[in-house]
Structure formats: C-alpha cells, structure tokens
Amino acid sequence: MWCPGCGNGTVLGALLRAFEELKFKKEETVVVTGIGCWGKADDYVVTNALHTTHGRALAFATGIKAFNSKLNVVVLMGDGDSVTIGGNHFIHAARRNIDLTAIVVNNMNYGMTGGQVSGTTPSDKLTSTTVYGNPEREIDICTLAEVAGANYVARGTPYHGWELQKVITEALTKKGFSVVEVISPCPTHFGRNNKLKPALAMFRWLKEKAIPVEKYNPVTYPREEGYFPIGRLVDRDAPDFNSRYEEIRARAMRS
After folding, report:
1. In what order do the strands lie in the sheet with 228-235?
2. Which domains are assigned to the chain?
3. CA geometry: angle at 63 spanning 27 and 105, to 5°?
4. Residues 162, 240: contact at Cβ < 8 Å?
5. CB-count burial class (<10 Å; 0-12, 13-18, 19+) for 248
6. Beta 178-183 vs 152-156: how paired, if at all?
7. Which residues are bridge partners to 51 per DSSP?
8. How far apart are CA 72 and CA 169, in angstroms?
9. Interval 176-184 mean pLDDT
10. CA-to-CA distance for 246 and 36, rounded, in angstroms?
11. Which positions fall inside the Thiamine pyrophosphate enzyme TPP-binding domain (predicted)?
C-alpha cells in the first residue's frame, strides 16, 4: 500500500512490537483508523479494527472506550485526521483525558490525495496547493495535546525506530489520553516538492533535525531552522474520563 521510503511501515512495526511486549490480546484490543495513508494500517492488524470517516476516528474511539473501559483502544491518524479535519475532536479527547492512545503520523501534507497543504505543513513549504509557499503557520501537535490536557505526549521519527517503540509502549500503558506524534517522510509529495527527494534525503533530514529532548535547546537548535525535540515531552497523572465518570455515577446512585 505505502510508497517506497514512507515511514508508515516502520511505525506499524514499532506499534506491533509494543503490542507483543505488553502481551496485548487481540480480542481485548481495538485499532481505530480514519482516512489517509496511515489509515490503511488497520488492513495489517489482527486485532478488532474500526475504519471510520475522515477526521472522526477519535469520536468513534471515545464511544468505544466510554462503553467498555477494559478495552485497549488505539487510534491511528494522520495529520489531516488528527488536527486538521479532526482538530475539534482532538482537542476534546485531550480535554476529557479519555484513556486512548493516539499514534499520529505527521507527514506534513495530505499524502494520499495529491500532497495538498494540511494544518501541520510548515510555514513557507511547498505543496500541490501552496506552490509558492505556505502562508499559514503550522500546528504543533504535541503542544496542542499538552495544553488541551493530555496525560502523555511524545514525539518520534521512523529514523529513530527503537526510541519510537519505547515511547509507544509508554503511551499504551499510560492511563488517560496519550499522544505519540511521528514526524514521517512523504517522499512522493512533500519530499519531492521541497527538494528532499529521494527518500534517503528525508531520512537524513530527520537524523539532522530531530534532537533528543534531553539535549534540545531552542537557542542552539532554532525551530525556525526546522529542529524539533523527540522523546517523552509530557508525563502527568490527571484522572482519566472513565474514572471521573464512575465517581459522578456513584454520587448519583447514592442520592
């Protein structure tokens, strides 16, 4: 399904190894996907799966988790599904702190439908719909998740495969809303439009620009030059939605 040089296969491998490490049973796990390149990942898993409409994966996943809190619910979204078309659902899933794990593959454009600009396309970058440069500022997925209330936020890349598996494993075991953003190559569209073709050029770019959070300093590595931190960015223990709901339900039953 995926183009040569796409990072989706590496991300899926990291996710499946995390499932195996944690001994997740397929009958107790639900993978929810939306539309797009990464949304096709549910074709390659043997867990319960739900393929939903564009931008609505988190809404469906919220319903599943609210109905049966014992299930391991994992949501696979691209940058369009998560924070462009699905931005409102993303904010409220984080605000509710619903116990879901969102794996967001951010290739900075709509890769499946021709490489159009998305909400995460960096300012001034070229896409099929911003051929002279993107006039808009991009959304920082991790910062949005943090300020909206997510308990766990991390970032990784397909170049840093073992580190990516580690943060995915942490996210899957964290109570509350967990987000792992994966900055991923799209050599077919984004890379070609921005002089990062062939695919190897995009992986070299990831190697250069992705800085472990322990070493990241915005003065030394300016965001304006494309540098970004990877690793665990947020880790807190606010009560999740189902726990708070049961408290209120118990209060209502006593009244």
Report:
1. 48-51, 29-33, 72-78, 101-106, 178-183, 152-156, 228-235, 210-212
2. 8-254 (3.40.50.970)
3. 75
4. no
5. exposed
6. parallel
7. 33
8. 12
9. 98
10. 35
11. 43-182
Q: Comparing C-alpha atoms, which of 218, 213, 219, 220 is closest to residue 235?
A: 213
Please state, in angstroms and as integers, the Cα–Cα distance from residue 178 to each residue in 13, 101, 212, 225, following that order: 19, 5, 19, 28
Cis peptide before 198 (omega within 30 of 0): yes
Half-sphere exposure in the Cβ direction for 104 (13 Å, CA): 31
Read off the amino acid at residue 201: A
Interval 100-112: pLDDT, tens? 999 999 999 999 9
pLDDT tens digits along 81-137: 999 999 999 999 999 999 999 999 999 999 999 999 999 999 999 999 999 999 999
E strands, 34-186, are: 48-51, 72-78, 101-106, 152-156, 178-183
Contact predicate 120/186, CB 8 Å: no
Which amino acid is it at 109?
N
Amino acid at 125: K
Note the residue count of the chain. Answer: 255
User: Which helix (DSSP H) or strand (DSSP E) does residue 90 occupy?
Assistant: helix 87-96
